[in-house]
Specification:
Helix content is about 75%, strand content about 5%. By secondary structure, the chain is mainly alpha-helical. α1 packs antiparallel against α3, α1 packs antiparallel against α6 and α5 (about 90-110) runs antiparallel to α6 (about 115-135). The longest helix is centred in the middle third of the chain and has 27 residues, at about 55-80.
């Protein structure tokens, strides 16, 4: 197996994860009974360093930060998968940093989220670790 395949697989998974996160993170299930809480998060405004904001603004903003980060990670993984062997060998810190970052994301997913982000982050982490470990040929 070639490292480039694992980077490309990770890139596709990251793109799907980014799209799914963007479309889903603001949705709630009526069974959660959080409609009143969400309504309060949206309607109660306060001044934050000169800006009129709500906790909903922060929730949406941080959620979109995550989506942008996942999209960037997809681009980075795709580019890592297309590098020539000598260039790839010269940047082990970049490859392992990305893999370790997703180890952290996987741990956080297991601790705080649910099955879909756990599965995506676990598969992405596995691909990134294998890709960083394998020599590019």
């Amino acid at each position: 197996m070639k490292a480039s395949w694992f980077y490309k697989i990770a890139a596709v998974l990251l793109l799907l994860f980014s799209i799914g996160h963007t479309l889903g993170f603001r949705q709630t299930d009526p069974q959660w009974k959080v409609d009143a809480l969400v309504a309060d998060m949206q309607k109660i405004h306060f001044n934050a360093q000169g800006f009129d904001r709500s906790y909903w603004d922060f929730f949406v903003g941080f959620g979109l930060f995550v989506s942008v980060f996942l999209f960037f990670s997809a681009i980075l993984a795709w580019q890592l998968g297309g590098l020539k062997a000598e260039i790839s060998a010269a940047i082990p810190g970049v490859k392992w940093s990305l893999a370790v970052c997703f180890v952290g994301i996987t741990v956080l997913s297991w601790k705080y989220f649910f099955v879909i982000p756990v599965v995506f982050s676990s598969l992405i982490t596995l691909c990134l670790i294998v890709a960083a470990w394998l020599p590019n040929k």
